[in-house]
What we know:
The complex is a heterodimer of chains A (138) and B (84). Chain A has 138 residues and is mostly helical. Chain A has one domain. Chain A has helices at 11-20, 24-28, 32-53, 67-73, 75-81, 85-94, 103-132. Chain B has 84 residues and is mostly helical. Chain B has a domain at 27-84. Chain B contains 3 helices and no strands. In chain B, helix 2 crosses helix 3. The longest helix of chain B is centred in the C-terminal third of the chain and has 31 residues, at 53-83. The A-B interface holds A 1, 33-34, 37-38, 41-42, 44-45, 48, 50-55, 97-98, 100, 102-105, 107-108, 110-111, 114-115, 118, 121-122, 125, 137-138 and B 15-24, 27, 30, 33-34, 37-38, 40-42, 44-45, 48-51, 53.
Amino acid sequence: MSQDRTHSVPAPLAALVAWLVPGAGYLLIGQRARGLTVGITILALFVMGLLIGGLRVVDPPDSYRQPLQAVYQRPWFVGQILVGPLTLVAASQARAVPYSHARVWEIGVLYTAVAGMLNLLAIIDTAYRAAHGAGGET
Amino acid sequence: MMMWLLGQTQPQPYELLRSPLPVWDYWYLLALPLCLGISIVYKSIRCDTMRRVPREALVLCVFILVVMGLAAGALAALVQVLAG
Lengths: 138, 84
């Protein structure tokens, strides 16, 4: 593992970058090994979910005008969207894919949602490290 | 009616990213990479140094799998007791 330098980055910016590309927030604050490990693992889980269940595992709500109703309608999408814009790309392509009721499809949903929730942990940790200058040692 | 519907259901050929992966008989093995991924990310966040991550992630992964196995065994035994 390499010793990386600490970069001074505002915490909100680090959190935003961590959401846009999983693991990139750590890279921004100078933690290359941690960023690559977290990013590759989260993206691998998300892509594996798509491969296991098909694109339709990403299932956005029909409308966002009533946020609570949207969350009630598609609770797993809350976890999935935490992976970043990649989820929106997958959702846009998923409209043409038929639904499945297979158990494997449920496992695909689980993979993608868990990937998003793990990225939420990474986003929070990135923002904390950026705010407290805990970057550098990887 | 139900039997007729079941008779009409044919397994669809697998299409990448369009249909679920045809792993109907050993779907439970998919828990392994999920647990490993959770362990790696969690320990990458928690550990001060990345040198400790591989070993601690492996230990956590095995721990999760063992506890899940024990929970599954206990629930299966409970079902057997309640059913019998």
